[in-house]
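User: Assemble these into one structure.

Assistant: Restating your components, then the assembled model:
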Amino acid sequence: MNRTALIVGVLVITPLLIFLALSFRSDPRDIASPLIDKTAPLFALQDLDGEVYSLEELRGQPVVINFWATWCQPCIAEHPVLVAASRRYEGRVKFLGVIYNDEPEKIQRLVREMGAWGPSLIDEDLSVAIAYGVYGAPETFFIDAGGTIVQKVTGPVSSQYLVNLLESLLSS
Amino acid sequence: MRKINRPLLLCALMLTALGAMVAVAQQSTLGVQGEALIGEPKGRPLTAEELDRVTTEVSSRMRCPVCQGLSVADSPTPSAVAMKEEVRQFLAAGYTDTQILTYFEQSYGEFIRLEPKATGFNLLVWILPIAALLAGLAVVIRRVSRPDSSDAQGDASPSAESDLETYLEQVRREVSS
């Protein structure tokens, strides 16, 4: 075999193989949010009862924003975790649910059955979901008392993870 | 027939109108404060056909976040439709395509651009195909300009020449017989 061709082939293929190997190790859907360490986009939304919630007015305490829907099974799975956490941190952390691509009536029904962990806000034109760079449900954003997004979780949050994160938010 | 109390009716109408105005005002303040993130418009407001055309043009440069390799313009998903509507509203308000793409990039990162910006590491995407093409062209030119080694060997080989002579002799014999 031609020695030069072999060397050129190895030089071309090796970086490609390294690049592919590194790429396959990461989840293509787990894209880092550019909003981390940035001020959370401000919004005002109505809940199912018509009450308006403004993020700006919640400054001064940590806020958890969860984008969810009834068609999303992981959202249903994490619902009890959020209910428990909202009770544990009542008065210290504000939990807001933003309805993602779903009908308010279905949300109402599910909340009646499984309990509420916070107001379910109607984002009819998905403008809030877009401003937060949401790819799907569930996605949870953790905002500190100063209004900065400190963490984003794609997929359901575990109880332990939630507690650890909220404790560190409250202690900082 | 009962007599209608006009002042009472007027009062009720005014209250209804006031309620409707408050509801409309409240509705308009709902949603995200997108303008706070995007700043003042730097272009001119678009309308009618131009608005439609540029909306499609800008949203076809954006990747649908919930699809596989589809642009916002091509995707029928609610998220893509909502994004396209936002693009339309921004263009109608006079925002430029650069401002609009920057706005979406703030939330989704560079992922939102179907065509990556030609800066930094991304430059490889633009440079590598051209480099590969040039390298291929160089190989082809080199091959074409170099005399064919098999031909050269054939011309120089005495055994091949004698084989040809033998073959020609055989053909001549068969033709003359």
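Strands of chain B lie at 31-32.
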